[in-house]
Design brief:
Length: 580
């Protein structure tokens, strides 16, 4: 049998560990760095991309999103003096963009001197551990997790042999809240609030990533057991994780290869204690709101960023306001800042950007993998409706999924396509995740929709939700969308765009576990009750060919009538609900 070869990153580590490399940073010529330098610098938060080879990014670890007023001001001052751009990350951290060869080392030192570390924020490390933004202060907060996070962070930041040496990054989430505004099931490791025999603690979930749901490890931990378990988990992954084909080194792939039970045995060997079987998950869906009442009677305010972008002036203004009102500032995984502890539900920041429920990745301006300038192109979405209904949107610039596009209500991957004529921007659309309780990720609705037609598609999906009578979009996914195959839903929407039909999509007995041929026949029969024989004639053995034909007709450049039906167009700009 051929011996497996370590991937390139592992060969770098074998030759020189990141902690052994670290002293070289002081004398490094940033005008002339090697491939090896680029690799090692990531472990200390310094990143260089092919987009601007002479520019650097610095990623800041904001522990659980908690930041002091003094730190906020210091970051804003550094960014302003050096003309840096500030980006909020999806792990409640910050990135500074636009550092140069001349100032990168100086700024790196300045940031680390204000009590914020940049260590292990990139590379094969434990990334920023996240929790709910209302941790410890919200009305739904049962166990404050911040002290546990600090202990976990202390362990990996101060264990030199772990710096940059894991098989792949580990993302960790922990929440002691009974309701969260965002899901944590995309993490490699998630400690979720649970109850066993009347006692609160945490159920353990493993193996999540941007396109997969973390699965139950059937483990219940008391709060004082979490840190020891976390250490055992990291040690087990470090010893037994996959280090060969780079694209298969996440924990998900290890679990896929050896099974959850085998990996849990590895953790148990490191843990050297017993644990209990999983308890009952305590988790409701939390709803986004501009103001949130806290358990002490004060209020929190959500300051919406420009899809993750924020200026030094904005940070200064937020710091001033928070200090005046003796309030606290926290960063969240939704790319927004929260001001906690206001005596009244009031703030001077009323220029809302309609972005609170939208997570948009860095985009082509900052990331070499992205096909879109995501943070600008997000403006093309129906932001008013998305904000009104608190619909969670995730937008990724590529299949890596940094926008968590499959862990939300509606997800998009920005790509480029020539499927419809000219090569131009388009998006793959995902729909219907049951993400709050970690039940399922979104399904691929359309492989590609041209950018100019995305708004009409999203508008129509939202109108279907409006007509459903469901309380939230996620309940719409559970009660109605889940009843159907994703191909049926795609064809249903295309037919309505083309024909102008206004019939809403009703729930029916789920066909989830029915044999494929019977489900297809039942769904085809459903279509025949509403749409013309001309449309039905396109359907043969499945819906796929009909979807391709109708997509081409609606969206191809140069087609004789590529516009959507006038009556649908009128509805899409109307504020009224549809009439059946």
């Amino acid at each position: 049998m051929t011996e497996k070869k370590l991937n390139k990153r592992e060969r770098h580590k074998a030759a020189l560990s990141p902690i052994e490399y670290y002293p070289q940073i002081e004398t490094l010529d940033f005008n002339s760095i090697s491939e090896g330098d680029i690799f090692y610098l990531q472990d200390f938060g310094i990143f260089n991309t092919p987009i601007e080879e002479e520019a650097y990014t610095l990623r800041l670890r904001i522990t659980a999103g908690r930041i002091t007023i003094a730190q906020l001001r210091a970051i804003a001052d550094i960014a302003k003096r050096n003309e840096l751009e500030i980006i909020l990350t999806a792990r409640a951290g910050l990135q500074l963009h636009g550092l140069t060869c001349e100032n990168v080392l100086q700024i790196y030192k300045q940031i680390n001197e204000i009590g914020i570390t940049t260590w292990q924020t990139f590379g094969d490390n434990v990334r920023n551990i996240v929790s709910d933004v209302y941790d410890g202060r919200g009305c739904m907060s049962v166990i404050e997790t911040y002290p546990l996070i600090m202990q976990m962070q202390e362990y990996f930041l101060k264990t030199p042999r772990l710096v940059g040496m894991l098989p792949r990054r580990i993302s960790t989430g922990i929440s002691g809240n009974s309701a969260n505004v965002t899901s944590f099931f995309a993490n490699d490791l998630y400690f979720a609030l649970a109850k066993r025999e009347g006692v609160f603690g945490f159920n353990v979930y493993m193996g999540g990533k941007n396109t997969e749901i973390a699965r139950s490890a059937d483990i219940f931990l008391l709060p004082d057991e979490v840190v020891s378990f976390f250490k055992a988990f990291i040690e087990a992954f470090n010893k037994h994780g996959l280090r060969f084909t780079r694209t298969r080194t996440r924990l998900f792939h290890l679990l896929e290869e050896i099974g959850m039970e085998a990996f849990v045995e590895y953790v148990a060997h490191e843990y050297k204690q017993s644990w209990q079987k999983a308890g009952d998950l305590v988790l409701e869906k939390g709803l986004f709101s501009k103001y949130q009442r806290l358990k002490d009677g004060s209020y929190a305010f959500c300051y919406e960023s420009n899809f993750g972008r924020i200026s030094a002036e904005e940070l200064m203004a937020i710091a001033d306001f928070a200090e005046t009102h003796s309030a606290e500032v926290r960063l969240s995984t939704d790319h927004n800042l929260y001001i906690l502890g206001l005596s009244q539900p009031f703030s001077p920041f009323e220029h809302l950007k309609k972005s609170q429920t939208i997570v948009a990745c860095a985009g082509s301006q900052y990331c070499p993998y992205s096909f879109w300038d995501i943070k600008d192109d997000a403006q093309l979405l129906p932001l008013e409706k998305i904000s009104e209904h608190r619909i969670q949107i995730g937008i990724s610039g590529c299949a890596k999924g940094c926008g968590r596009h499959q862990h939300c209500d509606i997800g998009l991957i920005g790509l480029r396509t020539n499927n419809f004529g000219n090569t131009d921007k388009g998006a793959r659309i995902y729909l219907g995740a049951e993400h709050s309780a970690g039940i399922s990720v979104g399904r691929e609705l359309f492989e590609m929709v041209p950018l100019e037609h995305i708004r009409s598609v999203i508008d129509l999906i939202i109108h279907e939700y409006e007509q459903s009578g469901c309380d939230t979009f996620e309940s719409f996914s559970t009660q109605i969308l889940k009843c159907y195959s994703i191909e049926f839903i795609a064809l249903w929407l295309l037919i309505k765009l083309e024909s102008g039909a206004i019939t809403p999509l009703y729930a029916m007995d789920t066909l989830e576990h029915v044999a494929e041929e019977y489900r297809f026949m039942a769904e085809k029969e459903r279509l025949s009750g509403y749409f013309s024989t001309a449309v039905l004639a396109l359907i043969e053995d499945d819906f796929k060919d009909a979807i391709r034909q109708m997509s081409k007709k609606l969206w191809s450049v140069g087609e004789s009538d590529p516009q959507i039906a006038p009556q649908i167009k009128k509805l899409l700009v109307s504020k009224k609900y549809w009439e059946v």
